[in-house]
Each structure stands twice: as C-alpha cells, then as structure tokens.
Design goal:
Two copies of one chain form a homodimer. Chain A is α+β, with helices and mostly antiparallel strands. Chain A has helices spanning 5-19, 31-38, 42-54, 105-111, 150-154, 158-162, 184-189, and strands at residues 58-61, 65-68, 75-79, 92-101, 119-128, 131-141, 172-180, 198-206, 212-221, 227-230. In chain A, 25% of the residues lie in helices and 32% in strands. Chain A binds a DNA duplex through helix 3.
Chain lengths: 237, 237
DNA sequence: CAGTGGTCTAGACCACGTG
DNA sequence: ACGTGGTCTAGACCACTGA
C-alpha cells in the first residue's frame, strides 16, 4: 500500500459503507476525529471527504456533520452516438437530401423560433453490412455561414455538426427514446416488408441561453439497435 | 459577488472555456501563475482546478500542466424507474405470480450461476388509468431468507427488491433498451389487438464480485412510455 | 536543471446548528 | 459557548517532464 493518505481515508470509509458498518443516514466521525484516527491534517481528511461526497457516498451539512447518503438507484450513464450505437456500427451513410426550408408550424414550436428564421433539413440513411438500418432526420436552425457542404454533413454525428458553430461546452443535450412503428415513408426507405418496430431516438440541442438549436430524430430498426446504460459508481483500485 | 475565491476561479476559467478564449487542448496558466493572478494560495487554486477536472473541463498532467479537455459529447444521464418512467406513472400493479424455479439453461447462462441454485420468478402487470401498459418479468438468484412475500413484492421496483438483501452501494446496474414486437403472451396479457411496438428495458444487477444477482425485463407499450436522458454539465449560479 | 503538478501540514477565521 | 463543517494561507517535500 503506497496510496496517498487521502485515498486510504476514502477506501476505509467506502469499505465501512459497503459492508454496512455505516448505514445511510449515519453520521461519520467529525473531521477532527478523523484527523486523529488517520493521523492526518484536516485538509487531507477533507480532501478524502470531498471525494466521497463527489462519488455520492456522503453529504456534508454545515454545523452538523458528514452523513452517509441513500444512493440514487435510478441514475444511469448512457453513451449515445447515432453512428456507433448499433449492434454493428454504421459502415455506410447515404445523404438523401439537404435543404433550407421555411419551418412549419410544428417546427417553429419545437425549435422555439420566430417565423423569419430558416431551418436546415438533413435526411440520411445509415447502413450496416449493406442493409439500410436507420433513417436519420435532422433540423438545424440556420445561421449565416453554417456549413452545408455535403461532404461535411454526410458522415457527421449530430454533436459533430453542431460543434462546427457552437462551443460544445455550452450545449445542453436531451434524448428521448421511444418505440414506434415505422411510417410508410420510413418503411419504404428502409425496405421493410414485414412489421419491424423502430427504436426512435430524438436528440434536442440547446445553446447557452437554453434556446433550441437543433433537433435530430434517428429511427433504428429495432432488430439492429440496442442502447446500453450503466450505473457508474467509481472504483478505487 | 460574495462567492468563495475558489469558485470565482472556477467561474473565470469556465467563462474562458465557454467563450472559446481557452480551446480544447490549450494549457491553463500554471498553478503558481494562477495563484498570482487570483491572489490566492496554491491550495485554493487547486481546489478550483479539482472542480474543473471533476466537471470534465480540464485534465491535469503531472509535470506538464492543466489542459482543457475535449468534452465527451456522447455522455448522457438517464433516470430510470420502471414504475414512474411511463408518460403517466403506474397507478396499479397486478402480481401474476411468484415462483421459485429450477433455472433453465438460458437463465443459468444469463445469471452465470451453477445448476444447484434456484431462481425466483416474479411476473407483474403495470396499469395506468385502468389500462395494462407494461409486463414486468424478474429473475432473482434465490438465497435463503429472501423476502418473497407478495405484499412486499407487488409494488417494489427492482432496486427496491434487491436492496432488501444487498447493499445498494455495492450493486452495479446495467440497462439494455430495445424496441420489440410483443410476444403472443404479452399481447394477450396487455390486451393488445392491433400491432403495438414495445419498448423493452432489461435491467441486470451485479453484486460486489460482479456476479449477476438478478435480471428484470419490463416491456412497455410503446405508446405509453418514453425514456429521457440529458447531458449534465453542472452550472455555477 | 528549473518548472510542473501531487501530497501534506498546522495553523487561522468564519458561518452554522444545538444546547 | 461549543462543536460542526467551509474557506484560506504559507509554507514544505515529492515525482514527473522537458530542455
């Protein structure tokens, strides 16, 4: 063991929490007590506690103490990329069209814009092993100088497109996942003969002022796409 | 402004990153330089930098410096609870059956157990507004003393069941989301006449030794369920 | 070698909560 | 008044990187 002292503190307390010695709601020993117990300075103890708080193990209440939390059992981390989330990644894309349109009323509402703005529409098909497996439709609020070069659009993911004209650090993203039956259009584009359910993922992007800057809808053949998410409690090895 | 100094440092640097003054890959001023710039001690500067690193803005490389990172644009946070993720929450549940069975080969494989263990099977229906909207099937590796009382099982979520005999802090969870057509059985149980796609969420739980302790599959009527996920870059207000 | 970040200390003062 | 956590300082020594 040549772990830094603050990590030893973290490990020790995590062990107590995982074993049940410390239960949710229980108070940890006071910081001064921990200083004595681990023969550490208060800053070192607090560094360890900060990590525990960050990992979601404890919560500090000023004037009272540090308390073991009830873990958030509903939280998962999901990695989504419309090009690689298929069971096999997308190996070919087909650009069906790029247009600049006058937004419809529905779009105006979804994008929360006024009528004098224009919208870029991008329609694509994704292929794996020669089969069309997803239909991808994106709407981006048009600003002058935005790249609408086919080459640049064809293989880009949605965040990739958006990053061309906005800082990724300021963008907020939302996903909506649902199961739907394909529309007649999608059915035709994906050459679906029998009834295949679609996994539909809608991406919505917002700028720093919380205004929508784009909406993307990707309809995956249900038999070609699965999304994975996992709880991420960090480990200390 | 009466923010603590370390948060002012965080805000200042975040502002520079969001505005593009600091680009991904750029090096921040050295910690000593930041001490001078903010008239702060090194521990205070480092506290700010630790937050920035935690939020995913920067990465420290010993001996070299602190560098602005390329944000992970594919990461989302998903909150999932099989009872509340419906467009309207579950307002009634029906327990179809609780059994202790000899696992089938498929189950043995999925749960990674040997044949001498038994498995609890729980089958439920979820209702909203009187309509059956989801079929819920769970397999839990049986251990002596596990609660299989109907009352306790009927309204519990999967994490709720598991927490009865395992510390939530040690559990790893995985979700798999897919779109499927209902089986004949599900179709009958949910009284589905026309073709309705199902949003199927599989939950898999692992104990501290990474061994599966349970699998749950919830099949939601596609027209009654949507999953939401969002990017969570924290704000400093 | 000088400069960088990583760990750690022994103090200090403050605001908060409880008696 | 006292103990709690929250902020902050001015040092120290170490390991790593690059010229």
């Amino acid at each position: 063991m040549e772990l830094p002292l603050y990590l030893k503190i973290v490990e020790d307390i995590v062990k107590d929490i995982k074993s049940g010695t410390l239960q949710p709601g229980d108070a940890l020993p006071s910081e001064n007590a921990l200083c004595d117990a681990f023969r550490a300075s208060r800053m070192t103890v607090r560094k360890g506690l900060a990590i525990l708080a960050n990992e979601g193990y404890i919560k500090s209440i000023p004037g009272k103490g540090n308390f073991v939390t009830t873990p958030n059992i509903e939280k998962y981390t999901l990695f989504y990329n419309e090009m690689t989330n298929l069971i096999n990644s997308v190996d070919k894309t087909q650009l069906l069209g790029v247009d600049i349109i006058q937004p419809t009323d529905n779009l105006l509402k979804s994008l929360n814009i006024t009528g004098n703005k224009k919208v870029i529409v991008i329609k694509r098909l994704f292929f794996t092993d020669g089969d069309p497996v997803a239909y991808d439709l994106k709407y981006l609020v048009y600003h002058k100088g935005m790249p609408i070069v086919e080459k640049e659009i064809k293989h880009e993911t949605f965040p990739g497109m958006v990053s061309k004209f906005a800082s990724l650090f300021t963008i907020k993203k939302e996903l909506t996942i649902s199961a739907q039956l394909p529309s007649a259009e999608v059915k035709k584009l994906l050459s679906l003969h029998s009834t295949v359910p679609m996994l539909v993922v809608e991406q919505k992007f917002f700028n720093a002022e919380n205004k929508p800057i784009g909406i993307g809808t990707t309809s995956f053949r249900g038999d070609y796409c699965q999304l994975f998410a996992s709880s991420s409690f960090s480990d200390f090895s």
